[in-house]
Amino acid sequence: MLIFEDFTLISARAECPACSANFVTAVVSGNSKVTTKTRIETDLHRVHTSSAFRAAGIGMCPDCNYCWWLKSFGLKTFFSPQEQELQQPLLSTTAQDLQRFNQAFRCGKQQNANHLALALIAINAQWCAQDGGLAGQQWLETAGQELSKALRNPTSRIDRGFYHYLLGELCRRQSDFQGALDNFDKARSGARLPSELIVRQKVQARSGDASATLLPVYLIEELFCPANLQPV
């Protein structure tokens, strides 16, 4: 077991959906509650103390190198507390964590995953890099490209308002301020997107600010109150 300031990793046994190999991998077993002091950025992701949090969401088979979201691997065994002492999760570097996302993106391409699925891999890779103190500009660009393709699909049933907002933030972080404003205009306010948030980010885009920005307390309270609390 590895205990961080805001989450805990334990070991579990997984089965590869591609080759049926069994292997031990790290799994997030607990995440501290969101409070008004929690660092949450305006793209609505929670900033974690280590890139290991994001990497633990990706499973990678050591036999065939198949790599995708860990939930698709079918976790088979969670070790007992005594066994956990003998099955300590290995803590990788941020560069190694990002290699998992690289492989997952390649596997997604090979499996003809849809553009939204690929965008979410790329977005999480950028968050992983940022949590680990590394640049993630290439992942920002890739995420924006894939999310743009997903939104251009007229048959897609995704939450367009939410993802236009997210694409607006991806554009803003790349200094594409007109693209950011265009997407913020297409974002619809609602339960997930308070109008104050959209207005706030339009102001930031108009001012030419491409920096990563934390949510103010009042928006954390509105978006992540206990009744609506969701992992990010």
Descriptive notes:
The protein is α+β, with helices and mostly antiparallel strands and 232 residues long. Helices cover 44% and strands 13% of the residues. The protein is built from nine helices and six strands. The strands form two sheets. Strands 1, 2, 3 and 6 form a four-stranded antiparallel sheet that branches. Strands 4-5 form a two-stranded antiparallel ribbon. β2 and β3 (22-31) form a beta hairpin. The longest helix is centred in the middle third of the chain and has 17 residues, at 94-110. The radius of gyration is 18 Å and the shape is globular.
Helix content: 40-55%
Mean pLDDT: 91
Helix-strand string: EEEHEEEHHHHHHHH
How many helices? The count is: 9
Q: Structural class of the secondary structure composition?
A: alpha+beta
The amount of beta strand, in percent, is 5-15%
Shape: globular
Low-confidence stretches: 227-232
DSSP E strands, number: 6
C-alpha end-to-end distance: 22 Å
Could you describe the largest sheet, including whether it forms a barrel? 4 strands, antiparallel
**What Rg, in angstroms, do the CA atoms define?**
18 Å
Compact summary:
The protein is of the alpha+beta class and 232 residues long.
Which keywords apply here?
13% strand; two-stranded antiparallel ribbon; 9 helices; 6 strands; single chain; 4-stranded antiparallel sheet; 232 residues; disordered C terminus; alpha+beta
Layout of helices and strands:
Blueprint (H helix, E strand, L loop, with lengths): L1 E2 L3 E9 L6 E10 L20 H4 L2 E3 L6 E3 L5 E4 L2 H4 L9 H17 L4 H17 L5 H16 L7 H14 L3 H10 L8 H12 L10 H7 L9
Antiparallel strand pairs: 1-2, 2-3, 2-6, 4-5
Helix pairs in contact: 3-4, 4-5, 5-6, 6-7, 7-8
